[in-house]
Protein: protein-glutamate O-methyltransferase
Amino acid sequence: MEITQIERVGIPNAPAPADPKNKGSKEVNSPDKPNLDFQIVGLGGSAGSLEGFEIFFQHLPPATGMAYVVVPHLDPTQKGMMTEIIRRYTSLPVLEIKDGLKVEPDHVYVVPSNKETALERSHFKLVSPEQPNGQRMPIDFFFQSLAVNRREHAIGVVLSGMGADGTLGLKMIMENFGMVMVQDPDTARFDAMPRNAITSEFVDHILPVDQMPEKLLAYANMPPIKGKHLVEAHKSTQMLQKIFTLIRNKTGHDFSLYKRNTIFRRIERRMNSHQILQFSEYVRFLQEDPQEVEALFKELLIGVTKFFRDAEAFSLLEEKYLPEVVQTKKDGDYLRAWVAGCSTGEEAYTVAMLLQEAMDKAGLHLKIQVFATDIDPEAIERARAACYLDNITADVSPERLRRFFNKVDNHYHVKKELREMVVFAVHNLNRDAPFTKLDLLTCRNLLIYLSAELQKKLFPVFHYSLNPNGLLFLGSSETLSGFPDMFTTLDTKWKISRRAETTVPLMRLAEFPFTFTSFETVKPHPEPPTAIKKETNMGTVVQRMMLQHFAPAALIINPKGDIFYIHGRTGKYLEPAQGQANLNVFDMAREGLTFELNNLVSRAAVLKEPVKADNLQVKTDHGLQYVKLSVTPLQEPAQLKDLLMVAFEDMPPPKPRKNRKETAEEASKKDERIAELEKELLYTKQRLQTTIEEMNSSLEELKSTNEELQSANEELQSTNEESMTNKEEMQSLNEELMTINLQFQTKAEELTNSNNDMKNLLDSTEIATIFLDNNLNIKNFTPQATQIFNLIRADVGRSITHIASNLRYQNIADDVREVLDRLRSKEVHLQTADGQQWYSMRVLPYRTADNFIDGAVVTFTNITNFKNLEASVAATSLYAANIIDVIQQPLVVLDGQLRVECASNAFAQTFQLIPEQLKGQWLYHLGNGQWDIPVLRELMDRVLLEGIEAKDEVWEHEFPVLGYRRIILNTRRVEQTESKPFKILLAMEVFER
Structure:
């Protein structure tokens, strides 16, 4: 943007605060005049900011004269504990904000979690959030309100956090001459918020949190600069001219036509930032530090903008005025708009979105062109990038976000269809030719920072640029006063106007310095005198009186006849022309003067010498008047160079000459000749006047055509610049494609390595594997599979049913179909046809990375050794069982739970038990509980728990069925492998009484 834009947030009609007072002076404030002398510090933070708040208040002295407002990101559904936490680290009063609470110095205020907080005349105002949780920007909301209401007494601090909340608010604070600090990202637990704030370039200090209180106190205790040094500098423009020269030499831009008050306020803010008191000292600082010149230039170009800024104004434009403009178009027509001072492009894309939506509602197919210009090249580059932080969700509706933006990570990128409607270009309103044939021209909150003289030059240019009935959209603080004939006001609040059907005088357009040079020196305009000095020179008074009484009536004009100054009474020679009022002497000259006046002015302008004509007959209200007309070119003083002075002097009627008496015939012939000559002269005058008017008209048309060609050339330059930008974007895209190609190459190498690794892995496992598709066709197989199936590489793609195998099992295809139908794995043990090998065949579904079934995997694991071992174990078990049966003494094999695994026939016969029912029974349940003997329990507990083996243990027992028995018992604990528990052998000798 070309100069700062003020964003009215919270309280749009808040009055500007008074100048700061000295620290030592105190003023008793009335209820209607709140104390605005102390600074208010807004502390914003999100994730990880609690630690920053603690450190800040630990290092903060108890009495600073400032108020502190903590704005955290909290869950609105939970009760916040921030107030209690901060009280632990400061002796200042800590309060949670209530609606209507007054702000007082040396207090800490905490924003509640479920409300948005604003300032209204030194009182807090709580409002319900409009955005849902997750899209709220409470820091931006408070910072913007703080900036508007406290201006230079506002201080914004951004601490650790995720996202971009606070960035827009910092812009507002700096734009209103406040001070901004950001936590050093290297010290923040989450650095997204600090880095986004730093990227915006609206930051005075980047510090660790523990150093912030010291910097705050130094800033607050700095004496006011608005003293004699700044006043002296304001009276004399010498120092300011040096600054203008430094900026012009550094950037090529001239700020001499910007409002002095704004320039001084910006310089004052930079001096406060560097703690410089003398204006001349700051000029020397600029001369020694070119980076500070660049920083001051950026300060003068602060562009606080956002999407749909002043939503009510854009809503009015969308619903009422843009549809009227669109309805005047036909399919295929151009719909053109110019956004002057577009800053980083938000407003340009806003206008493009509204135009697209208006076209869609009207059902038309128009060619939309939005020209977006700004004086700042860096802002234009950011606008062309069309990439914005996710905090735009607070201003752009979800529907527009979905239609016009693509979200990538934490940024929103403008879609190509909208991006191609907007042409961005670096453009200086004070110097470059305007765009023409516009349907909408927006120039919001820019003109208020330009001098009145420059504004008077711009409004005719705006009128010239717009189509008939085109719309002019200004900022809420700007006005069209002085140009009621050019624009018709449609909305006074939001400054929306329509181009009026009138002709702008060429003299107004001619004053505007359209040029294609890179820079044109604009002489600074001297300050108006503060007082009118009384004239004490008698000679000056006498000269004035003599001019009034004896000097003839005169005009100061330019060669085109435009009047700049009138002396004396000229009503006898001039009269207002019909139609639109103007001050052109050729249009106002009375009958009899027009021809000679035009002739004399043209001769004097070309010959550069005085010319005159006598005895001109002028038709006045009281008859004919003879006049002497003289035109004198002026070369000095310098202010009047190239102008002309036109003087009118009355003359007496010429006396008739005394000649001899003429005959009637001679008199008649003479009268006829005179009448003929007068008629011819009148005809010649009329033809000459017509020729002169046609020439002037041609000159005007030529000038208009030239200006249109200049505008078209400027548009072509902008389009060429946009094409160069597209070329750069294509080159950048090509570089990205090359990068992606390299990444693909790297991925291909990684894939090759992975395939090699997988091949070696499958080969090392020695597991035969066959990969099948859903039609049972072979996709791949490992070399080990050739030992089972008669496979060669040429069999890839053939059905598995066509391949002969070395197995006795022929139902493999049915098993695969069953697995594909049920999506459950299946395992079968198979033997080769020669009976020498055994394989465990396992069939599993083949799942892709997207969990899509794309066939089956059949694996064959050689289990020949396992089968041989199994047969060996079975034979061994049979052998052991036969040995036990041969033994004539009672013998029982128990597991670790004292359950019977096997028993000899002698044991079953001795105790009259059924052999088939013994296995698995608990020792104490044998014979319907006959073996539940206390002595036996005690003995077996020692065997189990203590690991003691019984040798020749003698015990006696009366069995209910068998009667008395005397038993000699021996035990042996048999340890097995780790996966199987131990076993206990019970061998006994049984004696009857």
